[in-house]
Amino acid sequence: MAQDTLFRRITDYAHRADPYPLYAELRRAKVARQEDGSYLVGAYHEITALLHDPRISSDTRERTDPEGPFPQDSSLPPSFIGLDDPEHDRLRRLAMRPFGPPHTPGRVDALHGDITAIARELVAGLRHKDRIDLVDDFAYPLPVTVICRLLGVPHEDVPRIHAWTTTVITSLDISPGEDPARRREAALAARAEMAHYLGELAGKRRGHPTGDMLSALVNDPGPEGALTPLELMISSVLLLIAGHETTVNLITNGMLTLLRHPEALALLRDRPELMPAAVEELLRYEPPVHMLPQRTPLVDIEIAGAVIPRGVPLILVLASGNRDPLRFEDPDRFDPERPDNRHLGFGSGIHSCFGAPLARIETQIALTELLHGLGPLRLAEDPPPYRSSPVLRGPRHLLIERVDGG
Amino acid sequence: MSGEPRGGRIVVVGASLAGLRAAETLREKGFAGELTIVGDEALPPYDRPPLSKQVLLGRVRARDVGLPRRRAVDARWRLGTPAAGLDTAGKRVLLAGGEKLPYDRLLIATGTRARPWPNPGEAALDGVLTLRTADDASRLAGLLDAGPRRVLVIGAGFTGSEIASACRERGLEVTVAERGPAPLVGALGGTLGALAAAQQRAHGVDLRCGVTVTSLRGDGGRFAGAELSDGSRVDAEVAVVALGAVRNTEWLAGSGLAAGPRGVACDAGCRAFDMYGIVTDDIFVAGDVARFPHPLFEYQMLSLEHWGNAVAQAEVAAHNMVSAGPDRRPHLAVPAFWSSQFGLNIKSVGVPTFSDQVVIVQGSPQERRLVAVYGYRGRVTAAVSVNRAKWLEHYQSLIESGAPFPPGPGAADGPGPPLSPVPSAVPDPAVLSHGPSVALTGHLPDRRLAVVHHQDG
């Protein structure tokens, strides 16, 4: 089949459960120009070269046709995920100040106990159920509770956060041919409401710190000064959404993968110390973010014998790079003890996942508690129903049954 | 190669980073014979970078920096026993106590030691020390704990600068004396040297460049101060001599190997050369003590005092020790190192001293955040980031592919005037207080960098 319909086929919901054969096709093409003028790259070494290339912009305003796929929200400035250095670097650094090293090295580690307690409580609630929907009953509530606690969002507001997030995320869906205007408008409205909500919350914390990140952001500016109120609103929307949405998929994909590989599941039950490496392999094998659709070359870029023209949408298919046989031996095998596993599950380069340390420990704890807190399990449905997004890919539900006698 | 590649006797001389990683790799690759590891220090292998950073800040104790083990090595450890000689014909390593260790294959990984203060009487003063070993670090940390009124650091290479940084972080007064025009200039050239000088002064260091320390004064056997070549005096209670490193090759005198003050010469596969330039097949070299040809730098012989090089070269050497001809691999890793000092995270790829020009492609010295790219005769040979390390992989690929210098503009550069390269201003190592941590060990020992410019065509 022609490469120029690859993106159409990848985004087709029919291939959501198993896009990997299409990715293999993409890797053979190295660089695949699509009928709408965008370019797809799916080979590991080419993706990493482009992720580290300062001639590639993350700002979609650099596109020749800014109204093409993934148009920019014009009502609010982009968050740092959609900006280039040095502005990206400044905003990310200020947001990192209360989250990680060098200023706050202990923040994520300190959450270990909380995350374990939340996970145990959720697992306890599953014990009396014969049929579990892992997404609704566990993989969603855990990270959303953690990120709200971390940022300082009251737990009773979680339903509002959930509704806003879903609306924003839905607008990331790509259904070529469909007019996305309506979904976009709803998403813009949701993002704006969320921004105002978080801005108001941060305002209340000013002078009344409660130990969370919003409090630190407004009360403890570094020598470079604080984020402006608008920057704070936009950055905290990003942290809140990215801080749980992707982890839901990682935990769910993780459990799905382990239930499909009983030998790996048994190994991890016996040897819990292998869990960190197993989570890295999950990030390679079934990553929560399948592609980065926001890149744009600032000049014509020569790569793998092709030229990607300046100003076109450039889509880097991370999940395809993760299965590249030129980088990973036997890439379609799930191997929780895989050595030399420099996967693209968190991206790479300056935009590499801000919350990676949190996602790692949340998933390690989540899977450990699920494996040890429940008896033998099996999938009630395989493949499960997927969410519509080909970008943030994961099951919408994951029905699991307890195995009798377990 | 003598004997079965995966059997026989292997002796590793040197029990630090390169020696340990080589031993682990030998076992990893299936070496099933007898393995002996000889080390002059009594301690099992430990990590040196923290010694001039966390240990001096009191965050880690010097005895808690043991290197993590990748796997069991099942070796006979001869620690606290320096090697004293090598009989290549009889294939035996002579130990200091007189014992002879026979080998089928030998790895030389004896590294370097701190260059001592040239006047032994002054060097023996209480309060005068070098920093290379865990014992040194422990002693220095103890001296700093006592709260000296002033510390004198002699030499502003990476080690000296990191020590000065730790002193300032602990609130101690510190004077740094450097014969060259700026700190770090020997490794990074003039542009970043100027940034390092400004940063040291902004952090309250009494930085004296273009001077040498002519003598150390004692008072009742205790160090009390120093005289400088400009006629000034510094009163201090501690003097740290940071004059660079000396390669541990004396034990190879008379062995017939191409070993000398610049290291032990070897080929790209880590096999040692003998004094006639003939490659041996049973003696390998890795780590700081090695000098090896690198294709990215016109096959100049490089000596690198880099953590990453010790690991990568040890792995290649070990692989080649247990592999026959066509399965052997070259050591082609792009040199890289890092340093943290005065709030700056400095990372380097390539060989900045192998350059004639430098250009700042991202950020600026004023922001204390930049990427500088180095070029030699129109191609990229190195890049150094300050507080901006995530970009380095891109520049590494430019080095590896011999990309044109200066590089084109990018998204991260921000709007600004076009790039304007300036001379990289890497001084001849002879003008520095400290030795270079990367030496291009070309044909003319006293004009190592000049040789670069004379090799046209």
TrEMBL record, chain A:
Keyword Heme: yes
CDD domains listed in its UniProt record: CYP164-like (cd20625)
Any single Pfam family the record assigns to this protein: p450
GO terms of molecular function: heme binding; iron ion binding; monooxygenase activity; oxidoreductase activity, acting on paired donors, with incorporation or reduction of molecular oxygen
This protein's record includes keyword Oxidoreductase: yes
Compositionally skewed regions (Basic and acidic residues) per UniProt: 54-66
InterPro entries reported in the protein's UniProt record: Cyt_P450, Cyt_P450_B, Cyt_P450_CS, Cyt_P450_sf
SUPFAM superfamilies documented for this protein: Cytochrome P450
Keyword list, A-Z: Heme, Iron, Metal-binding, Monooxygenase, Oxidoreductase
Positions of region (Disordered): 54-82
Family the entry assigns: Belongs to the cytochrome P450 family.
PANTHER family recorded: CYTOCHROME P450 YJIB-RELATED, P450, PUTATIVE (EUROFUNG)-RELATED
Protein name, as recorded: Cytochrome P450
From TrEMBL, chain B:
GO MF term list: oxidoreductase activity, acting on NAD(P)H
Domain FAD/NAD(P)-binding: 9-314
Span list, region Disordered: 403-431
Entry cofactors: FAD
Domain of life: Bacteria
A GO cellular component annotation in the UniProt record: cytoplasm
Reductase C-terminal domain residues: 337-407
Gene3D superfamilies in the cross-refs: 3.30.390.30, FAD/NAD(P)-binding domain
Protein name according to UniProt: FAD-dependent oxidoreductase
